[in-house]
Amino acid sequence: MSAEPEQIDGGRRHFLLVATTVTGLAGAAATAVPFLASWKPSARAQALGAPVEQDISKLEPGAVLKVNWRGQAIYIVRRTPEMLATLATPEIVNRLRDPNSEESEQPEYTKNDTRALKPEYLVLVGVCTHLGCAPLDRFQPQDAELGADWPGGFYCPCHGSKFDLAGRVFKDVPAPTNLRVPPYRFMNDTLVQIGVDAEVA
Question: What is the pTM of this model?
């Protein structure tokens, strides 16, 4: 007769233990999810300048990828060897307003012939320096609309400003300066982080 109440008490204890454990785990999960989510920058924080990361492993040569950072478009272009070859040709350099990027807004580590950390990848703020329109990528040379002497680059449809394949502005267009280069770094071969300066030795 005394064994039966002990079995009932043991069953209750086991039930209470399981119920308490399950409730505790559910409570911990409910607390952890918002806590861990708070570590990820919100859309508002990203708009205010939190860095953004972009995987570029699937970016094809000759193509452009557009990313949003601080409420503005960032263009990441994977340039082909042919595209890079046009950057130093005298017939193009002589047509540029600021070929050496002396008046451009860009990090020191991109003040070079390609305006990039890695020549293959160009990272630009996709906002025309004239009145803030979004330039179009017109990478094909001798574009029907832009003329036989067009070497490929960016074209602003609002007022006709033209930029080469390094974002350098041509002479005799409304834009006063080259397209801006944001701070950025490569976290590895396929991941670029925009909004953080690269550490250059």
Answer: 0.74
